[in-house]
Write a structure and sequence with these properties.
The complex is a heterodimer of chains A (about 260) and B (about 350).
Chain A: E1 4-13, E2 16-26, E3 31-35, H1 42-49, E4 56-61, E5 64-65, H2 71-77, E6 78-81, H3 93-98, H4 113-125, H5 141-154, E7 159-163, H6 171-187, E8 191-195, H7 199-205, E9 208-213, E10 216-221, H8 223-226, H9 229-236, E11 240-243, E12 250-253
Parallel strand pairs in A: 3-8, 3-9, 6-7, 7-8
Antiparallel strand pairs in A: 1-2, 1-4, 4-5, 9-10, 11-12
Helix pairs in contact in A: 4-5
Chain B: H1 21-40, H2 48-57, H3 70-104, H4 117-131, H5 141-165, H6 170-194, H7 199-207, H8 216-234, H9 236-242, H10 246-251, H11 256-278, H12 284-295, H13 300-324, H14 333-351
The chains are: A alpha/beta (about 260), B mainly alpha (about 350).
Chain lengths: ~260, ~350
Amino acid sequence: MTKLCLGSLSVELGSARVLDGVSTEIAPGEWVALIGPNGAGKSTLLRATAGLLRYGGSATLDGDEVSSLSRREMARRLAFVPQSPLLPPGMRVDEYVLLGRTAHLGPFGGESPRDLEIAGRALARLDLGPLAHRRLQTLSGGEQQRAVLCRALAQEAPLLLLDEPTTSLDIGRQQQALELVATLREHGALTVLCAMHDITLAAQYADRLIVLSHGRLVAEGPPGKIASAELIAEHYGATVRVVGEGDTLAVIPVRRI
Amino acid sequence: MSVAAQPAAEAVHVPSPSRALWPIVGAIVFVGAAVLVGLFVGPAGIAPGAIVRELLSHIPLLGVHSHLSATDSAILWQLRAPRVALGLLVGGMLALAGGSYQGVFRNPLVDPYLLGVAAGAGLGATIAIAYAQGAADSWDLLPIAAFAGALVAVALAYGLGASAMGAGNPAALVLAGLTIVAFLTSIQTFIQQQHAQSLQEIYSWILGSLDTAGWHEVMLALPYVAIASVVILLHRRVLDVLAVGDDEAATLGVNVRRVRLTIVISATIGTAAVVAVSGLIGFVGIIVPHFVRLAIGTSYRIVLPLSLLLGGGFLVLCDVIARTVVSPAELPIGVVTAFFGAPFFAVVLRSSRTFR
């Protein structure tokens, strides 16, 4: 179980401050969804947490500053699934999933039987058995998404960072992908931080929502409290109606002209 | 999260990806055959049977005695064998360096000369030929100048790329390489213009050749090639990880910057060493790794060792053609690699299913 603490986390890209003093704590085993309009800093927050960007302030995993960890150590603690992963042409699904074991191998070593077994179990859990020997580029969008999640699962890291895991999936596949993350959480002690566009889905699956706008954390709390028509109007500039409550609420856009 | 501890569905059997036994065995057989052809064929017309007996006589406990005359033995061991050995070194190194460069830059069009090895070596050799005619009798000057020129060029390109846009950006390095190549080539052309009398010699060096004077060139290049090959082959799995992109490779636990620098330095030193003794031989470094990808597999665990073996065997065979087709004259080996390699590769390209 991993506790993630962000303290005044700031990121500057060029002269632009794209993340500005974000402070929050994510408890072990919690699922937190990051929402906010385009350019709010959701991906930047995830990438800084994954050690991919230089940041100001602090980001700690169980008390250890992210920037002080080696790549290898970091990969054992957190797995990152980017928005549009690069799928190497010609690579098979099982080979791809085995890449998740990189941080567990010796510097120049190959996979041990244990690594193969862990990859095999991860493939089975995501129902990728029949596709294990297919090449990545022959899979459908939903299957590719599952392969990427499977790679992250094989990494056996207690913290999972997901950047828009449902983009480019149809409504059925969106549901499947999120259900998958939900089941993974039930079985293992998995902490999830996930950037999402769809507020309805975010509210249904996450324990807590964090709203980012212009790089700042503007609201956080349980979905029922956060996903309100006022907040969405203020930060997204959208006119919506929010129906239902708790984990069954839905955000419905209202036509204006 | 521990996957192993979970009461999951039946595990899927995942084969170990490091096993590529049969392709490796096949490649070793190919190299062996290429070596024999390289030793058998030549203007002196020594009977293959006699050569085989001579080879076997060097294996202890077999009790085979060679009937080769002293002259024929000298032709075999001082002319043909070093040439074959040099072909293996040069071809293997160029193909291995090309394959690894394509990996660290994630760019299939890259060849080992990308960052200026060829332009730097060409300039070094040109300077040595043009300005040190007399001193060039101490004949190690040419390879040393070429070697130094190659290293300086790549150091300039890497420095420029890293300072301009950060070493994390492979495209920046490629652009920096292009800049350095253009700059050095212009200097080389200028020097050639000023020393028209050396043109022939410079040109023939540039076209490349495995013409040797005994084992000297082999021994000159061998240590660099050996070290570079070992370092690159140790990184074969890491190159597979790099294929998912710099950021993702980093989150999988790879220090991308360090790996890229290590591979570039190793491939550069190895390439510079073989270019220094053989001139500029094109085509091998780009085509052999692609042949392996199309015909056998795209994992660098397969691409790199097979490129090393097949590149060596391929160049030995090309050299046999280069020195026999217009005998007693010789074709530049770069002409042969492209003339016979291109049609062959075209067939492979058409029949491959890898990228469909």
